[in-house]
UniProtKB/TrEMBL annotation:
It comes from the Bacteria. InterPro entries: DUF7003. Pfam families: DUF7003. It comes from Laceyella putida. This is DUF7003 family protein.
Amino acid sequence: MSFQPSIEDYRKAGLDINKYSPTTFIRLLSFLYKDKMWLDDHRIFAALGIQLMPMFFRTDEWDHEDDKPSQHRFFRLIVNALEKNDASLIQIENTNTHWRYWGTKIEEGDY
């Protein structure tokens, strides 16, 4: 297998090639091959040892606060949606869990 990312790949991913680190590379892979970085439904349910069923809700970004889950708006929305069996009630606003919001403290000597 050969992989030669371009400067344009990094730019599209919102990554600064001048601040390269192993984390930058993993973030690029996640951007380019997101579908390969996560398990599909069949593998998730097989790992849990349960029969495949429709997915109620899925997200990889949300507004994460430092509250207890019972006080967190996002988790209260999920509870409400489950009670009413209506995933459209989960409105995600002001997401902050995407990796672009997370700095890294990796130094040159760390790798």
